[in-house]
Amino acid sequence: MSYYDKVYEVTLTIPPGRVSTYGAIADYLALGSARMVGYALNKCHRFEEPIPAHRVVNRNGELTGRNMFASPTRMQELLESENIEVKNNRVVDFKTLFWHPQDM
DNA sequence: CCAATGACGACTT
DNA sequence: GAAGTCGCCATTG
């Protein structure tokens, strides 16, 4: 068990078609900080379970972590696959699609 | 145990 | 208001 597990748990709670932020997850866990969340998702490969990390973006709605995916375009593809429009590495209408773990 | 790192965020020029 | 600086804090080497 580690801080990662909590991050993965919350990340898996994000409903399809919605996105969340590192800060929101960190705030929900009331532990660490936004960096820890991103750092945790970077090591998500340790789980064979598909972690919807593409639904987690920074507070600007930018796909900052797209570079860490198998392909830089993989993240955008997955988001568009869920009816989430992405423009210039940024989630369109991110403010509306934003979802906070507490709002489940 | 000490130092470096990092998918970020808030604050300061 | 855009760009730069500093703090965050668990994990890894």
Describe it:
- The chain has 104 residues and is mainly alpha-helical.
- The protein has one domain: Winged helix-like DNA-binding domain superfamily/Winged helix DNA-binding domain (Arc Repressor Mutant, subunit A).
- The protein has five helices and four strands.
- Strands 1-2 form a two-stranded parallel sheet. The protein has a two-stranded antiparallel sheet with strand order 3-4.
- A hairpin with a 2-residue loop joins strand 3 (86-87) and strand 4 (90-91).
- The longest helix has 11 residues, at 3-13.
- The radius of gyration is 12 Å and the shape is globular.
- The mean pLDDT is 92.
- The structure holds a DNA duplex (13 and 13 nucleotides).
| CATH class call | Mainly Alpha
Q: Could you give me the name of the CATH homologous superfamily?
A: Winged helix-like DNA-binding domain superfamily/Winged helix DNA-binding domain
Work out the number of β strands.
Answer: 4
Termini distance?
Answer: 24 Å
Draw up the topology in text.
Elements: H1 3-13, E1 20-21, H2 22-29, H3 34-42, E2 56-57, H4 74-80, E3 86-87, E4 90-91, H5 94-97
Helix pairs in contact: 1-3, 2-3
The structure holds a DNA duplex (13 and 13 nucleotides).
